[in-house]
Every structure is written in C-alpha cells, then in structure tokens.
Amino acid sequence: MAGMLSIKTNPRRAVVHFGIMIEEGQKQRIIHHILAWYRTNARRLPWRETSDPYSIWISEIMLQQTRVETVVPYYQRWLKEFPCLEDLAQADEDRVLKAWEGLGYDSRARNLLNAARILVDQHNSEFPRDLKTLQSMPGIGRYTAGAVASIAVNIPAPILDGNLRRVLTRLFNISSPLKTTETENTLWKIAEELLPESEPGDFNQALMELGALVCLPTNPNCSSCPLAQECRAYQLGIQESRPVRKAKDPVPHYQVVAAVIEKDRRVLLAKRPPDGLLGGLWEFPGGKQEGTETFPETLRREIREDLDLEIEVGESLGTYHHAYTHYRVTLQAFRCKGLSDQLQLNYHTDLSWVE
Fold first, then answer.
1. What is the pLDDT of residue 18?
2. Sign of CA dihedral 37, 41, 47, 50
3. Is 60 a catalytic site residue?
4. Which of 306, 301, 227 is nearest to 273 (CA)?
5. Residue 227 in contact with residue 169, Cβ under 8 Å?
6. Dist CA 194 CA 25 (whole Å)
7. How far apart are CA 134 and CA 128, in angstroms?
8. Residue 210 phi, psi dihedral angles, 5° rounding
9. Which of 262, 315, 255, 265 shows the shortest CA–CA distance to 286?
10. What is the number of alpha carbons within 13 Å of residue 257 lying toward its C-beta?
11. Which of 23, 24, 49, 60 is labelled catalytic?
12. In the chain, helix, strand, coil percent, each to 5?
C-alpha cells in the first residue's frame, strides 16, 4: 500500500484505492442489512435513550477503553451528580475526579471538565455542529467528534473505533497491519464512504454493536452476522486472522518505592501535578528506582528531591503490582519518619497530613 488514498464515485460504484472496491449495490446492501439487524438486536443502553449531546458525549468518553457493563453505573451516577453541561463546568476538579474514581485514565475526566468550561464560556453551552471545532475541544478527537455529531445531531460524520476496525478489516479483507498510517487512512475512507446520509448515528452504532456482539476478536459468530454474505474474509475462511496486528514491543517494567511518612498519628499525602499520568491525584510520595540503588536509597533520594526532606526508612508495608497501558510497576511501600518539619514542594502541587 503506497501513495495517497482517494475515493472516486459514480452512480454505479465507489472505488477506494489500495485495492479496496465498494460497489454501490454492495454499499446499499450493507446499509440495509446492518440497520435492520440493529433495530432488532441493539442492546438497551441508557445513552441510547436520549438525543442530548451532553449525555452522549459523556457516554462516549467513558466508553473509551472501558467495557459497557462497567460504564453503565458510572454514567448513571455521573448524570445525577452533573445533570447538564453547566453543572459540570461549575464543578471543581476534585469533585469531578471523585465522580470518575475507578474508571481509570483520569485525564479523560479532566478533559471533560476543561471542555465543559470552554463550551459554556465560548459556545453558549452548545456543542458546535462543525467537526473541526468539536475536535478542538480537550479530549475530543476525530472519533468522539464523529460519534457526538452523528448520534446526537444526525450529521453524517464517520467514526472509527476498535470494533469498527475489526468489522471493516474483515468485511473488506484488509491485510495490512493495524496502527499504520496506510491502514488508518484506508479504514477512515471506507467508514466515510459507507456512511448513509440518513440515519448516520444508527449506522455508526450498528457497526459498533456488531463488533461488540457478533464480530468478536476471537470466535466471531459469523453464522448470525447480517453481513456474512458481504464479508470477504469470511468467504475466504480467514476471518480470525483479521485484523492483522503489528508485533508488540516488550512491556517495560519498573520498580517504584513509596514512603508512608508518619507524624502525630497522621500520614503525609502529596498531590501530583495536573498533567501526565495520574495527574491531580493524591499519593504517598516516592519514585522510580535507578541503577543499583537499594529501595531505601531510592526512597531517601526521591523524598529529598521532591520535598527537601531527610527521612529514616523503616519497615516494609508490602509489595504492590500495577499494570498501566504501556508499562507495569512493582511498588514497595515503607513506613518512614521525617527528620525535620520543613517541607518544600519541588514536584507536587500540595501536601496534606491525614488520619
């Protein structure tokens, strides 16, 4: 696959270069079959019972890298806490992060708050109908902008998420690996070309639902798929080898230490900077082991660098394992005692002694 991607259309067929051809008749069959299937098989989900852009936006952000079953109770609690855009915009960050607690990827919650404030202050509390403007909001990329536009306001905007990537690579037997520029361009163009002018939101949701319920990553239920007769990978018997994935790099593993510093029956918590991993959250201060340091040596160095505090490292309080998207952590916690009362904020933004 090389060169620029383009689409040519005429009344009889649509051609997507790089060897992918979508005939007009096939396009209409796909639209007809998937919409008919969706009307009968779509799950009843709370965000499908509203056309409110705010509510749909919240659901789409929560559903990023999070399972539907996990999202439903969070979504319902969120809308009780922040029923509308103005309520969210007026909330403070700690309250928003508390409502988000447990969903992970906390930057999503901070982006929701920042985008809500921009929408209220600069857009009269309305979601822009222009996709480029929507994508300029914190945390709203091409997929989320397309989802909100098509589902909430019926704008024919394509979307592409993990489910659609799987469905489309099988449907058109795309053999190039995911997460390459060429494959992404091809998939976006196919999603755009297939999208009907009417019911774009239902069409987008139908393809996502097909990927969630039928076109599964392993053991896809092809016998009940409404698009089986259109699916090139299924016709060739290679559906389970699509999509093709790039070989994964080894997952880095870090050793980290944390100090539970005690004073007068209280312990010290430090607030992380707002940007970056776990931004704005409270932690026991510490950091990553370097070179041949022992854990106590790492802890004394980190606390000295971050807080200008010399500490006495005491007993171990356990070993804890954490897995993040791109790396893993083994954390060693130690009971510690500060050797002075002077603390300096060199990295964190706030400190608190808590029971």
1. 60
2. positive
3. yes
4. 306
5. no
6. 11
7. 6
8. -60, -45
9. 255
10. 22
11. 60
12. 45, 15, 40
Total residues found in the chain within this entry = 355
* 218-238 as b/e: b if 16+ CB within 10 A: eebebeebbbbebbbbbeeee
Residue 202 burial class via C-beta count within 10 angstroms: exposed 0-12, middle 13-18, buried 19 and up: buried
Segment-wise mean pLDDT, segments of 10 residues, the chain, 355 residues: 37 57 92 97 96 96 93 97 97 94 90 97 93 94 95 94 96 94 94 94 97 96 97 96 90 96 95 84 94 95 96 96 90 95 92 95
Rounded Cα distance between 11 and 134, Å, is: 32
What is the phi/psi pair of residue 300, to 5°? -65, -40
CA distance 272 to 194: 45
SS3 317: strand
User: Any alpha helices (H) in the chain, and if so which ranges?
Assistant: 24-41, 53-62, 68-81, 85-90, 93-100, 107-122, 131-135, 142-153, 162-171, 181-194, 200-213, 232-236, 295-307
DSSP symbol at 177: P
- pTM strictly above 0.85: no
Contact 336, 312 (CB under 8 A): yes
Whose tokens are 């893993």? That residue is 328
